[in-house]
Amino acid sequence: MRMYDLIIKKRNGETLLDEEIKFIIEGYTKGLIPDYQVSAFLMAIYFNGMNEEETVALTMAMAESGEQLDLSEITGIKADKHSTGGVGDKTSLILGPMVAALGIPVAKMSGRGLGHTGGTIDKLESIQGFNTALSKDEFINNVNNIKIAIAGQTTDIAPADKKLYALRDVTATVDNLSLIASSIMSKKIASGAEVIVLDVKTGNGAFMKNEEDAFKLAEAMVKIGNAVGRQTYAIISDMNQPLGRAVGNALEVIEAIQTLKGMGDKSLEALCIHLGSYMLKGVKHVETIEEGKQLLMKTIEDGSAIRKFKEFIKGQNGEEEVVDNVDLFPKAKFIESIHSVVEGFVNEIKTEQIGIATLILGGGRETKESDIDLSVGFIINKKIGDYVAEGESVGTIYANDRNKLEEAKEKFIKAYVIKKEQPKMNKLIKGYVTRDGIFKF
Q1: Residue 163 and residue 178: Cα distance in Å, rounded?
Q2: What does the H/E/C string look like for the chain?
Q3: Angle, CA of 362, 252 and 318, to the nearest 5°
Q4: Which value, in Å, is the radius of gyration of the alpha carbons in the chain?
Q5: How many CB atoms lie within 10 A of CB 345?
Q6: In terms of Cα–Cα distance, which of 94, 11, 25, 82 is closest to 306?
Q7: Residue 162, exposed/middle/buried by CB under 10 A (0-12, 13-18, 19+)?
Q8: So what's the pLDDT on residue 410?
Q9: What digits encode the pLDDT tens for the residues 289-344?
Q10: 175-216 pLDDT per residue, tens
Q11: How far is residue 85's CA from residue 54's CA, in Å, rounded to a whole number?
Q12: Domains of the chain and any CATH numbers
């Protein structure tokens, strides 16, 4: 088997066999196939696509390129959730404790953020002492005893994906459905959960700007998951404005705590409950989504969710007192209100610009080596549909550098489109995809 022949085969639009795809991924991971040949292969995929069988084969080859977590020592069916990313997305911090409070094991491997804000791991590290580098035994023990653990993804999980993504990033081949779907699902499959719930974001603050594209990606990932024996669901949700009210690492953990106490943003709460109900259905804890929603809402109302969050923090050596005293989180030096210069209704929020403004403050990473400031960010005071008087606060900025504050504040205010007329409101949940097909709301 020669890489040259396989490039020609895909260039000509032919279908690759499973063993041919495995040969490419294994060879590239081990350094036996050079970047320039894999670049040509990726470009051939970009133009000619891959069918469902090829996409599944590519996903499994990447999943099998490194360590695959064996979670068999954890009692019960394991559920995981993945988001395709957005601005202010702290859902894992909320739905994890809610689901765990119902006795469902949540064994989650998460990454650090590269972009607007930190990932789930960065956010958790804003809690003093919190340990995200759990050993395998610690991880399994915590899930068995507490029902939840969230740890940093090891470099041994799907190493082929890391190499391929770096190459796609510099060869303009990121934007291909099969390559995106296999990249996401290879890591989820290697992480060992039997039930996978995907939150596929769409809108101006999401990777998938177009709603139809988001449904196509969701369908591709659900087909991959179910093809390899994982119960997989995808929910398509709105990212045309930041999720919740907080953007920035410590600020988002504080909002997660408020939400678990029943005092958070209601749209954020609703999305978490919706996602969590599919996790419950997948592990056969409930028959219907509505039943799942009721059980999850009860964990907020009876306090079991916030108690579980506290237990989760303690189990990973974090300062659990932050749950009752948010002043223990890292604090920004400068906190200022951002005022509107016009009046009217918020018609649009250029969500990606809010993310970039957070990055300017130091709340995200431009490169993997960038340091991250856990204390900076924004609180969103006005969202789409809200009325704003001239001079009224649309947000609050948290910063540690005066020059960065001014630059980020200008970016933030320009993200708001305020008009005299009231806007048409976007649906939070656009629809969902299961093995039974696509359902749009």
Answers
A1: 16
A2: CCHHHHHHHHHCCCCCCHHHHHHHHHHHHCCCCCHHHHHHHHHHHHHHCCCHHHHHHHHHHHHCCCCCCCCCCCCCCCEEEEECCCCCCCHHHHHHHHHHHCCCCEEEEECCCCECCCCHHHHHCCCCCCCCCCCHHHHHHHHHHHCEEEEECCCCCCHHHHHHHHHHHHCCCCCCHHHHHHHHHHHHHHCCCCEEEEEEEECCCCCECCHHHHHHHHHHHHHHHHHCCCEEEEEEEECCCCCCCEECHHHHHHHHHHHHCCCCCHHHHHHHHHHHHHHHHHCCCCCCHHHHHHHHHHHHHCCHHHHHHHHHHHHCCCCHHHHCCHHHCCCCCEEEEEECCCCEEEEEECHHHHHHHHHHHCCCECCCCCCCCCCCEEEECCCCCCEECCCCEEEEEEECCHHHHHHHHHHHHHCEEEECCCCCCCCCEEEEEECCEEEEC
A3: 95
A4: 22
A5: 17
A6: 94
A7: middle
A8: 96
A9: 999 999 999 999 999 999 999 999 999 999 999 999 999 999 999 999 999 999 99
A10: 899 999 999 999 999 988 899 999 999 999 998 999 999 999
A11: 26
A12: 3-63 (1.20.970.10), 79-324+429-440 (3.40.1030.10), 332-419 (3.90.1170.30)
Average pLDDT of span 390-404: 97
Instruction: Tell me the per-residue pLDDT of 131-179, one tens digit each, with 9 for 90 and over.
Output: 999 998 999 999 999 999 999 876 688 899 989 988 998 899 988 999 9
What gap in Å lies between CA 224 and CA 230, rounded to an integer?
9
The structure tokens listed for 201 are 């974001």
pTM over 0.70, yes/no: yes
Q: What is the pLDDT of residue 153?
A: 72
Q: State the Cα–Cα distance between residues 370 and 364, nearest whole angstrom.
A: 8
- What is the identity of the amino acid at 143? V
Rounded-to-integer distance, Cα 276 and Cα 307, Å: 17
Active site members: 82, 161, 168, 183, 187
**Residues linked to residue 246 through DSSP beta bridges, in sequence order:** 379
